[in-house]
Design goal:
The protein is of the alpha+beta class. The protein folds into six domains: 61 residues, Helix Hairpins (Orthogonal Bundle), CATH 1.10.287; 226 residues, DNA ligase/mRNA capping enzyme (D-amino Acid Aminotransferase, Chain A, domain 1); 83 residues, OB fold (Dihydrolipoamide Acetyltransferase, E2P) (Beta Barrel); 76 residues, 5' to 3' exonuclease, C-terminal subdomain (DNA polymerase, domain 1, Orthogonal Bundle); 81 residues, Orthogonal Bundle (DNA polymerase, domain 1), CATH 1.10.150; 76 residues, BRCT domain (Rossmann fold, 3-Layer(aba) Sandwich), CATH 3.40.50.10190. The chain is 37% helix and 21% strand.
Length: 663
């Protein structure tokens, strides 16, 4: 046991060091493959010896815990917001006010104002104990589990001290754009800006979703610390950096209003070059003693201010308006511009949303328009410069036919979108397949948009059911571009595994209008199988909590389409699960009050299925064996959990006994 403990400690130290090198210093020392090997070894050791797992283990960053909600946190000290300055005169007035109040020489620290979500981190004896949002400054929400998934936040620091720091969680530009591209492909609502994306990610109740989002943090203030005193803010930041925190970048010392103004002008031009969004600069008095003298108002400190950048706008010309077709058939107009550099990047296109948006702004092909980046990220048309018109502009009209398949395109009363009515439209099929294989739907790894497009172009896939016939074309797949033997094997394994997904995933994957993940789960719990759902009438559907009238109408319309019911029948023929595990056993409670632990490989069930049966019969599943465990369900190659069960005298059952109990 001592050897295992030493190895866990060694792995923890190594992985934490590599995390710091990669996520804080941007200087990785080992390959991803070597890192993954270390992490897998640690995960395996902690699974075998859960009593040795610590709160600052790197494995705590992977998420997986589903939170019931966010508890309210009362902050130790008020987390005040900053007053704003907008121009040179405001900065000079701020400087004069400071000098007049303290009658001393003043030194300022200027930092970038990261556009993210402010959080407060509390460390006890050098370990992260609690993390919370700023909230209203007095109270925030506890989000410790989600913050632990951010790899640039140290779970433990070098010195065993009690301290509180404040920082800004953000999403880098490239990561934000990639996230929005994926959401757009799946026709999910895109985030308006990186700040919204960061805030939305931190408020996920499923910590695994937060862990999958590429979040980062900069620490910008030491709030409190026991047993240490610092004279300046810059000195405190240097200490935090030594402890392993990722502190605000580009910290500048300025000694006059003129220096501050020069930096504001410099960063107004340079901000587009940064890999993250800033919406201004923060000016702070450096001396902590002078801060005490200046004090605070009820809302903000007198010793600091935020300089806000004015929104950057540029003129350009609309060269054309092109159309894109989504998986629901919605036809979206997009403006193509003469390229123009705006807020650090070259802009050549922007969505025009729908017909009403174009009519409201009276946008025509050939118009000169003013554009800006909404939230400094997403390009949008602000207005048309109508005085620049010369009469050659072309009025745009939404089409009467789909631009991809030529079928009728209609706009239903009360809806903003014009839609292609052809369910077999190639553009709709492509988008619907992107959704079908996505992580939250059937979760088929290795089938990204590029691979699906390739398979469609080659005629291998024309609908979702065709995905489950690809195993018969393995050699043909290996011969395709970007499809090596290993990647084809992994993809086919993922396809085969997806057949056992619970019914709720299939319902969501079908892309039924207005039926998201939550609704799909409720429906799967309310019906025996997908055919019972198909037969349900309006009254039966709206009797289900949270299923509204519009959702019920959408479901009925979907199942009235012959091609949809034919697709479902073919999916079942090819082995895709269409039955609800929970619904079939929910009335029975023979496992009520019993705790199970699963170990080893099961041949008749996936782990998720076995867990669903146990919970459906009223029991619960734990990850570790203890004296409170009632049964250990042991499959092939059962490991240390089986040994521990035998040591503790816990009842061990095999798969055959479990199946008999279910029957």
């Amino acid at each position: 046991m001592n050897e295992v403990k030493k190895r866990i400690e060694q792995l923890t130290m190594e992985i934490n060091t590599h995390n710091h090198n990669y996520y804080v210093l941007d200087n990785p020392q080992i390959s991803d493959y070597e890192y993954d090997k270390l992490m897998k070894e640690l995960l395996k050791l902690e699974e075998s010896h859960p009593e040795l797992k610590k709160s600052d283990s790197p494995t705590q960053r992977v998420g997986g815990e589903v939170l019931k909600g966010f508890k309210e946190v009362l902050h130790k000290t008020p987390k005040l917001s900053l007053g704003n300055v907008f121009d040179e005169n405001d900065i000079k007035e701020f400087d004069n006010r400071i000098r007049k109040a303290i009658e001393q020489e003043v030194e300022y620290v200027m930092e970038l104002k990261i556009d993210g979500l402010t959080v407060v981190l509390n460390y006890e004896d050098g370990r992260l104990a609690q993390g919370a949002t700023r909230g209203d400054g007095e109270r925030g929400e506890e989000i410790t589990a989600n913050l632990k998934t951010i790899k640039s936040i140290p779970l433990s620091i070098k010195e065993e001290v009690d301290l509180e720091v404040r920082g800004e969680v953000f999403m880098p530009k490239k990561a934000f754009e990639a996230l929005n591209e994926r959401r757009e492909e799946m026709e999910e609502p895109v985030f308006a800006n990186p700040r919204n994306a960061a805030a939305g990610s931190l408020r996920q109740l499923d910590t695994k979703l937060t862990a999958e989002r590429p979040l980062d943090i900069f620490i910008f203030n030491l709030e409190t610390i026991d047993g240490k005193d610092f004279k300046t803010h810059s000195e405190a930041l240097e200490y935090l950096k030594e402890q392993g925190f990722k502190v605000s970048p580009y910290i500048l010392i300025c000694k006059s209003a003129e220096e501050l103004i020069a930096q504001c002008k410099l960063w107004a031009d340079k901000r587009g070059e940064l890999p993250f969004e800033i919406d201004g600069l923060v000016i702070k008095v450096n001396s902590l003693e002078q801060r005490e003298l200046l004090g605070n108002t009820s809302k903000s400190p007198r010793w600091a201010a935020a300089y806000k950048f004015p929104p950057e706008k540029k003129k350009t010309k609309v060269k054309n308006i092109v159309l894109q077709v989504g998986r629901t058939g919605a036809i979206t107009p997009t403006a193509e511009f003469e390229p123009v550099r705006l807020a650090g990047s070259v802009i050549s296109r922007a969505t025009l949303h729908n017909e009403d948006f174009i009519l409201e702004k009276d946008i025509r092909i050939g118009d000169t328009v003013v554009i800006q980046k909404a939230g400094d990220v997403i390009p949008e048309v602000v207005e048309v410069v109508k005085e620049d018109r010369d009469g050659n502009e072309i009025i745009f009209n939404m089409p009467k036919q789909c631009p991809v398949c030529g079928s009728e395109a209609i706009r239903e009363p009360g809806e903003a979108a014009t839609k292609c009515v052809n369910m077999s439209c190639p553009a709709q099929i492509r988008r619907s397949l992107f959704h079908f294989v996505s992580r939250d739907a059937m979760n088929i790894d290795g089938m990204g948009p590029q691979i699906i497009t390739l398979l469609m172009d080659k005629g291998f896939v024309t609908n979702a059911a065709d995905i489950y016939t690809l195993k018969d074309r393995e050699q043909e797949l290996i011969g395709l571009e970007r499809m090596g033997e290993k990647s084809v094997s992994n993809m086919l394994d993922a396809i085969e595994a997806s057949k056992q997904n619970p019914l709720e995933r299939l319902i969501f994957a079908l892309g039924i209008k207005m039926i998201g993940q939550r609704a799909a789960k409720l429906l799967a719990e309310s019906f025996q199988d997908i055919y019972e759902l198909e037969a349900a009438d309006f009254e039966r559907l709206i009797a289900i909590p949270e299923i509204g009238e519009k959702m019920a109408v959408s479901l009925i319309k979907f199942f009235k389409q012959d091609q949809n019911t034919a697709l479902i029948g073919r999916l079942e023929e090819l082995g895709v699960n269409v039955k609800s595990i929970r619904r079939s056993i929910e009335e029975k409670e023979q496992f009520k009050g019993k705790t199970f632990v699963l170990t080893g490989s099961l041949s008749s069930f996936t782990r998720d299925e076995a867990k669903a049966y146990i919970e459906g019969f009223g029991g619960k599943v734990s990850s570790s064996v203890s004296k409170k465990t009632d049964f250990v369900l042991a499959g092939e190659e059962a490991g240390s959990k089986l040994v521990k069960a035998q040591e503790l005298g816990v009842a061990v059952i095999d798969e055959e006994i479990f199946k008999q109990w279910l029957e």
